[in-house]
């Protein structure tokens, strides 16, 4: 008997559904989940403890012209319009969230300062679910900062709709308490000539798994994604991306950098770019770099390109993981700089380009201070 060969599914063929029951239970052997310690998800993948903890609360103080921040119920047309889950935790989060935080930017609005929202966890005694919708109107230009902190076991989805000719800089910061767990999906939909810059910072938590996806609805869309992550001993930080080029003449550029220190620190970066047959004229590039500061840390990095047309401007990827450069350290120390300060200088330089993308000086300085404190602690 001749065996039937079943070709692997492409990213375009993957299941998408709002119903958790449509996704099989996870066992850890799936390609998408082989790096994730499922037991440490604490119910985010199986839903056994759904609704047992209070959802996150939101703090925001600005009253900016053209900006509305509030809540919408699941029956609102914008709830679920952009993001259709393609994994079980995302579907569970959609099913478990009855309301969403709405950040709405009106047509042609150009706020003078970033829209800043704090997302504060409600505890680690059970699973909570959250949902956020960011709706940027045509020709608007805005920066939005979402800072996530406190204790949480949280599954959440973030939908980002950027209309034609709009400009959005979105900064998401995951600085959870040490025992916290998060599984998050951030989905962008770009209109014609829309420009998005996403800066994703991950520092806290026990396990943080963040999935970012982007798609285009018109020509000229431009998506840039920058990631900065720092894992200490025992932390698991996982970043997965899918940029789905579905229309001609769009661009994407992805740059993620991570530092790791301490026994059991583990980071995972998987970057997928899909260029469909009709997406001629695509220009895309993705790169991931990891800096391992001590023994016992591990970084996995997997860039992928799936190309269905040869008519592209450019398509490339790169990945590099290395240890702290002793030559750089020796050079600085030979000029009278102490070893701890030399290490801080090298790591600051490693992250400087990404921190500069954050459009808020106070936040940049605060994140730099957190990174410095971690480097100082490991040297003590």
From TrEMBL:
<dbReference type="InterPro" id="IPR011542">
    <property type="entry name" value="SUF_FeS_clus_asmbl_SufD"/>
</dbReference>
<comment type="similarity">
    <text>Belongs to the iron-sulfur cluster assembly SufBD family.</text>
</comment>
<dbReference type="Pfam" id="PF01458">
    <property type="entry name" value="SUFBD_core"/>
</dbReference>
<dbReference type="InterPro" id="IPR000825">
    <property type="entry name" value="SUF_FeS_clus_asmbl_SufBD_core"/>
</dbReference>
<dbReference type="GO" id="GO:0016226">
    <property type="term" value="P:iron-sulfur cluster assembly"/>
</dbReference>
<protein>
    <submittedName>
        <fullName>Fe-S cluster assembly protein SufD</fullName>
    </submittedName>
</protein>
<feature type="domain" description="SUF system FeS cluster assembly SufBD core">
    <location>
        <begin position="126"/>
        <end position="350"/>
    </location>
</feature>
<dbReference type="InterPro" id="IPR037284">
    <property type="entry name" value="SUF_FeS_clus_asmbl_SufBD_sf"/>
</dbReference>
<dbReference type="InterPro" id="IPR055346">
    <property type="entry name" value="Fe-S_cluster_assembly_SufBD"/>
</dbReference>
């Amino acid at each position: 008997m001749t065996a039937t060969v079943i070709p692997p599914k492409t990213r375009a063929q993957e299941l998408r559904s709002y119903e958790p029951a449509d996704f099989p239970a996870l066992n850890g052997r799936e390609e998408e989940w082989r790096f994730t310690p499922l037991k440490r998800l604490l119910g985010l993948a199986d839903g056994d403890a759904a609704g047992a903890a209070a959802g996150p609360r939101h703090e925001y103080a600005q009253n900016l012209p053209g900006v509305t921040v509030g809540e919408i119920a699941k029956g609102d047309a914008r709830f679920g319009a952009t993001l259709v889950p393609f994994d079980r935790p995302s579907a569970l989060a959609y099913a478990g969230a009855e309301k969403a935080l709405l950040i709405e930017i009106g047509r042609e609005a150009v706020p003078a300062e970033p829209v800043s929202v704090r997302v504060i966890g409600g505890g680690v005694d059970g699973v909570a679910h959250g949902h956020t919708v960011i709706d940027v109107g045509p020709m608007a230009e805005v920066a939005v900062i979402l800072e996530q902190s406190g204790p949480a076991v949280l599954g959440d989805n973030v939908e980002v709709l950027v209309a034609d000719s709009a400009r959005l800089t979105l900064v998401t910061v995951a600085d959870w308490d040490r025992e916290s767990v998060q599984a998050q999906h951030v989905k962008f939909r770009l209109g014609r000539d829309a420009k998005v810059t996403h800066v994703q910072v991950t520092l806290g938590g026990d396990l943080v798994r963040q999935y970012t996806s982007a798609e285009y609805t018109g020509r000229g869309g431009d998506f840039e994604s920058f990631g900065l992550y720092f894992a200490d001993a025992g932390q698991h930080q996982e970043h997965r991306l899918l940029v789905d080029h579905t229309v001609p003449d769009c661009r994407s550029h992805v740059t993620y950098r991570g530092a790791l220190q301490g026994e059991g620190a583990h980071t995972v970066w998987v970057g997928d770019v899909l260029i469909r047959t009709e997406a001629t004229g695509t220009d895309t590039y993705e790169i991931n770099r990891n800096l391992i500061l001590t023994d016992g840390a591990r970084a996995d990095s997997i860039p992928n390109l799936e190309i269905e047309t040869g008519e592209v401007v450019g398509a490339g990827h790169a990945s590099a993981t290395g240890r702290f450069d002793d030559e750089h350290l020796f050079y600085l120390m030979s000029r009278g700089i102490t070893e701890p300060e030399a290490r801080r200088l090298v790591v600051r330089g490693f992250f400087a380009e990404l921190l500069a993308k954050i459009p808020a000086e106070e936040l940049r300085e605060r994140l730099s201070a957190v990174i410095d404190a971690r480097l100082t602690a490991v040297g003590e």
